[in-house]
Each structure stands twice: as structure tokens, then as C-alpha cells.
TrEMBL record:
Keywords: Glycoprotein, Glycosyltransferase, Membrane, Transferase, Transmembrane, Transmembrane helix. It is a single-pass type II membrane protein. One of its GO terms (cellular component) is membrane. It is found in: Membrane. GO terms for molecular function: glycosyltransferase activity. It comes from Panicum virgatum. The keyword Lipoprotein does not apply. The chain crosses the membrane at residues 16-36. This is Core-2/I-branching beta-1,6-N-acetylglucosaminyltransferase family protein. It comes from the Eukaryota. InterPro entries: BC10-like (IPR044174), Glyco_trans_14 (IPR003406). It holds the Pfam family Branch. Its main location: membrane.
Length: 378
């Protein structure tokens, strides 16, 4: 006799409710984080042309090494400067900070640019090699203490900090523009004033260059506080808000590292002024900068120095062409020669990139004076 085993009935498979609940909770957290971000990141710069602080900064530290006291102090000070409200000035001014070896050949052009706008600007002159002889009364008495400056070395940053410190003493100075002796204005004062005061981002050139003129210049092990991926390059000529000017003065950690590494005696190919500020701002406030400089320079000749403009070069067409440029581009210095081209966005709208230009030779002054009214008119 064959015994038939009773048929076993499988119980209905239970739905994995715990997985559904877990996924639902994760979705709720992600949506909540997106809509209500952490307080530190809830207020991006209103007119920032770049993105907000990268998502990587929301993540907890991987704890690869313990931070030093100096790193903690520096991060706390910079964090508080970036979050604190700035005093509101009833008479906001632009601080024009000239970094020059000696006299300024274009003082009469700047005087024409500034005429009729007294009380809306301040002038500071850092002459590092010889005492300047001023031809304009606007520049007389505006010299500040200076030390020897070697172009490209850390002494350039020392001079920039000295200029910022003097300019910050005036509470009405709200925007700080670094200019050289070969710089000239491209627009009327009203245009420049409204361009700068109408936004709260800083105009700092910043891009990633893996080549020998960028990250390749550095022995990264000298900078344990800086991830190699954060290194940036850019022009040294900046225009920054008061908040960012304070932040530059407050930073001691990264400035100290560059100063230790970029010693002339070491023989390193270290151009500190092209890397310090781009790297610093890329790390602490990338959403607060434009990633281009408002000072135009022509590197198209592919030489160690940019193109210089002689008197014969200075024509109406040249100047109007420069003022009309509304896209900025960078080229990496590696074998790929990668070209990165982006529109210049001002408060989200495409606008001309440049307010100033360099390098103009002193003999170009007469032509610039003759053409000033025509090339600066809208």
C-alpha cells in the first residue's frame, strides 16, 4: 500500500515590510535635506553665479587624520566671518588698491575716470621698489607702508594683505579691487560701481589646471591640509566683497603653508599669487566667487607674460572689442590643452566680463585719454 503524504501548503510569502519602511524613511530624509538643508548651507549667496557649497562638505569628515589646533582655529574664524552679518554703510565705496613697483603712469586717466564721483571711492597705493611721484592730487598722500615685493612669490600676497588691511579701516569701503600699474578702466565709473555693488559675489579667477603651471607645480605632500583635488589656479587681480576681504586677512593656516613652501632659496617653481586665493576660496566658499577676474589680460601669444599694448595698439576697436567680451575661458597647461569656456553671469544674466584691462605700456596714455569718452560710453 502506498502511503500518500499529506500535501503541505506553503504559507503565503510575507511582504518585506521592514525594507519598505526603511526605504520610505531614507526618501523622507533625503527630501527633507534637500528642502530644508542644514542651517550653515541654507542661505547661498543670492546672486552667486556658481553653485552652492559642494555636497561633499555636508558629509562628515572621514577622519583620516586629527586636525591641528591651527586648523580648527582657522576654520572656526572663517566659518563665522562667512555667516556673520556685515555692517551696512550709508555711503558704500569702492577701494581701488594699486600694487605697483613705483609711479603710476596712468594717474591722469584714472583721474578722468573718477572725476565727479568723490565720496564713492578710496585709493591706496603700494609701491614696492621706489617712492612714487604722483601727477594727480587724487593719489597724493595715498601711499601705504610697503616692503620689497618679488612678482610671483609670497611677498605679492603680503602686499595684497597690507593693502586690504589699510582699506578695511574705512568702514564705508565695501568692494576691494586689486590693480596694477598697467591697468586701465574699460567703462565709466557709474557702470563699474553698479556692476560691483549690484552683486554680493567676489570676482576671483579660479580653475583646475592639472598641468605644470597648475597643480603640477607643487609637491602636494607639503600641504596635508589641502586635498590635491582642491588645488586651483587663477589670475591674481581680484575684486572682493568686504566679507571676503576680512576672510583673506583672517586666514593664517593656508597662507602660512604657501609661505613655508614658496621660499626663493628652495628653487621651486612656485607662483604663490596665482594659486593661494583660488585654492583658498575653492575650499571654503566656492559658491561665493565668479571663477573669473574682472581684469582682462591677453594670453593668446602663449608666452610667459601676457601681451602688452603699445600706443599703436590702442584703438577704439581694440577697446570696444575687450569691453564686449561676455565669455571667459581657461586653457590647461598639460599636453591636452583643454579649453574651458563659460559665459560671464552677473546675477544670473550674461554680461560683459571685464571692468579693467592690462597690460598697457606708459606711452599709450595719450591715446587712452583721447578715446576714453568714446570707448566707455554705453
Amino acid at each position: 500500500m502506498t502511503v500518500m503524504m499529506p500535501q503541505r501548503h506553503r504559507a503565503a510569502a510575507k511582504k518585506p515590510m521592514w525594507i519598505i519602511v526603511l526605504l520610505s524613511m531614507v526618501c523622507v530624509v533625503l527630501i527633507g535635506t534637500y528642502v530644508f538643508p542644514p542651517r550653515r548651507y541654507s542661505k547661498c549667496y543670492l546672486f552667486a553665479s556658481s553653485v552652492c557649497t559642494p555636497f561633499k562638505d555636508w558629509l562628515p569628515s572621514m577622519g583620516q587624520r586629527e586636525r591641528t589646533d591651527e586648523e580648527i582655529i582657522s576654520s572656526v574664524v572663517i566659518r563665522d566671518i562667512l555667516s556673520m552679518p556685515m555692517p551696512v554703510s550709508k555711503n558704500p565705496k569702492i577701494a581701488l588698491m594699486f600694487l605697483t613697483p613705483g609711479s603710476l603712469p596712468f594717474e591722469s586717466l584714472w583721474e578722468k575716470f573718477l572725476q565727479g564721483h568723490e565720496g564713492r571711492y578710496s585709493i591706496y597705493v603700494h609701491a614696492s621698489r621706489e617712492k612714487p611721484v604722483h601727477t594727480s592730487s587724487l593719489f597724493a598722500g595715498r601711499d601705504i607702508h610697503s616692503d620689497a615685493v618679488v612678482w610671483g612669490l609670497i611677498s605679492m600676497i603680503d602686499a595684497e594683505k597690507r593693502l586690504l588691511a589699510n582699506a578695511l579701516e574705512d568702514v564705508d569701503n565695501q568692494f576691494f579691487v586689486l590693480l596694477s600699474d598697467s591697468c586701465v578702466p574699460l567703462h565709466s565709473f557709474d557702470y563699474v560701481y553698479n556692476y560691483l555693488m549690484g552683486t554680493n559675489i567676489s570676482f576671483i579667477d579660479c580653475f583646475k589646471d592639472p598641468g605644470p603651471h597648475g597643480t603640477g607645480r607643487y609637491s602636494i605632500e607639503m600641504f596635508p591640509e589641502i586635498d590635491e583635488r582642491d588645488f586651483r589656479k587663477g589670475a591674481q587681480w581680484f575684486a572682493v566683497t568686504r566679507r571676503h576681504a576680512l576672510m583673506i586677512l583672517a586666514d593664517s593656516l593656508y597662507y602660512k603653508k604657501f609661505k613655508l613652501y614658496c621660499k626663493p632659496a628652495e628653487g621651486r617653481n612656485c607662483i604663490a599669487d596665482e594659486h593661494y586665493l583660488p585654492t583658498l576660496f575653492n575650499m571654503v566658499d566656492p559658491g561665493g566667487i565668479s571663477n573669473w577676474s574682472v581684469t582682462h589680460v591677453d594670453w593668446s601669444e602663449g608666452k610667459w607674460h601676457p601681451r602688452s599694448y603699445s600706443a599703436a595698439d590702442v584703438t577704439y576697436d581694440l577697446l570696444k572689442n575687450i569691453t564686449a567680451i561676455d565669455e571667459n575661458f581657461h586653457v590647461t597647461s598639460d599636453e591636452k590643452k583643454l579649453v574651458m569656456q563659460k559665459p560671464c553671469l552677473w546675477n544670473g544674466s550674461k554680461r560683459p566680463c571685464y571692468l579693467f584691462a592690462r597690460k598697457f605700456n606708459p606711452e599709450a596714455l595719450d591715446n587712452l585719454l583721447k578715446l576714453f569718452t568714446s570707448y566707455t560710453s554705453v
